[in-house]
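Pasting as-is:
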Amino acid sequence: NIVIQIIKMATQGRAAKSASGASMSKYDVEVEARLKKLEARIDALEAADKAGQEVDARFVELEKKIQALWN
């Protein structure tokens, strides 16, 4: 009985909560942190790719203008 009380005291209010309010284990918290880092890296790569695509599009437009001047 005392062991159960100690376990209850040790676990009450200590677990992390997910966005839905569910309790998360230490492993779940670590996985969630890793996932957030990966998502942030993906967002950064997508932003960089979008910037690169915009530069490419501007370059193509300049090429078209130069071609028009030469012809």
